[in-house]
Amino acid sequence: MKYVITIGREYGSGGRFIGKLLAERMNIPFYDEALLTKAAQESGLSEAVFKNFDEQKEGLFSSGMGMYSYDMSLGQKVFLAQFDAIKKIANVESCVIVGRCADYVLRDYENVINVFICAPMEDKIKRAVTYYGLKENKAQSEITKRNKKRRSYYNFYTDKEWGKASNYDLCINSRIGIEHCVDAIEAYVKSIFKIK
Amino acid sequence: MKYVITIGREYGSGGRFIGKLLAERMNIPFYDEALLTKAAQESGLSEAVFKNFDEQKEGLFSSGMGMYSYDMSLGQKVFLAQFDAIKKIANVESCVIVGRCADYVLRDYENVINVFICAPMEDKIKRAVTYYGLKENKAQSEITKRNKKRRSYYNFYTDKEWGKASNYDLCINSRIGIEHCVDAIEAYVKSIFKIK
After folding, report:
1. DSSP string, A93-134
2. pLDDT of residue B4
3. CB contact under 8 A, A184 and B170
4. What backbone torsions phi and psi does residue A117 show, to the nearest 5 degrees?
5. In what order do the strands lie in the sheet with B170-173?
6. Is any Cβ of chain B less than 8 angstroms from the Cβ of A145?
7. Do B187 and A192 touch (CB under 8 A)?
8. How far is residue B100's CA from residue B57's CA, in Å, rounded to a whole number?
9. Surface-to-core class of residue B78, CB atoms within 10 Å of its CB (0-12 exposed, 13-18 middle, 19+ buried)
């Protein structure tokens, strides 16, 4: 049986890593940045455009929502291509997809479980300093900024509210440890889809 | 090892029932209304006061927050007695506690896992009509009203936001089935506390 687990996550929560471990446990493919490449290939937009976009997206929402700016127009092309890619992938295989509003994109698909990962600020700071090289004294404001951006991005592209429990099937706070989160999601998914 | 699982929940989500099943699975006591009685006995406030309060609480927040009204003063006594009872219980035994801001009351306790249960409106309506005898044509507005009240109550007594994922360890949407929720919480709790 085919199923998809989408994972939304706060920056610094370890959500991407949880998704990766979960995909390994369930023995299904894992998509995050790889999606970009796949989307690029399938949409006909060149990889150079995506790379350029990825480098520019810092400024995506900097002038209000930037809706009519060159950036947003490029951004919208990229996002729509990603949305297509997510649907194509979900049509053919079970997988874990991190980010990219995949929960919203697949809202009419069956067998989709939507997960959200959050964490206390002190954990996010620790993770961002250790794994993403943020400076300790600037980490908190950077994390807040990035999560505001994720929220804006999500709320703009969907009709739902990022990080609100009722928006997802399962929300887990990773404060208690990454492995325990993976255990819970695995148990939940196996329970729902009757996987031994 | 002693641990407590608190469960916050939307009215109509099945959260109370999930808590009951979970307590049975974990073989630990379950507290909800029983808390009231216990609080009454231990606080010296008579059961008659609690009963009276329970019947009046419909109107608790009806005039703004009613902060200086007779109701609120009675309400505050009852709540504080409940908060004491929650702490006393958490000091002596593992248990599942539903509602009553138990997550906030036990915020400085170790080995506390905070869970929130939500559900889509159509499921809440079905449950409220089937189990709580609400009339179908009035169910949605009644559910909305009751959940607004829970939110107000929670946000008033705590410094946190009801139903926001980052506020809890685990949030589960019961749309997928009560048993699957219990499975996921059980797996999560056992993983964290290394219970076989």
Report:
1. --EEEESTTHHHHTTT-SSEEEEEEE--HHHHHHHHHHHH--
2. 97
3. yes
4. -115, 130
5. A30-31, A95-98, A4-9, A112-118, A170-173, B170-173, B112-118, B4-9, B95-98, B30-31
6. no
7. no
8. 13
9. buried
Residues 6+ apart with CB under 8 A from A115: A5, A6, A7, A8, A168, A169, A170, A171, A172, A185
Amino acid at A122: E
Amino acid at position A15, single letter: G
Of B10, B175, B187, the CB nearest to A187: B187
Whether the complex's predicted ipTM is more than 0.85 is answered with: no
What is the tens place of the pLDDT at every residue in B91-142?
A: 989 999 998 899 999 999 999 999 999 999 999 999 999 998 999 899 999 9
Note the pTM of the prediction, 2 decimals.
Answer: 0.83
Cα–Cα distance for residue pair B88/B104, rounded to 1 Å: 14
Specify which residues A98 forms β-bridges with: A7
Q: Which of A45, A25, A74, A61 is nearest to A145 (CA)?
A: A61
Search chain B and give the residue with CA nearest A182.
B188
**Quick one: which of A180, A185, A148, A187 has its CA closest to A58?**
A148
The rounded percent of chain B whose pLDDT value lies above 90 is 57
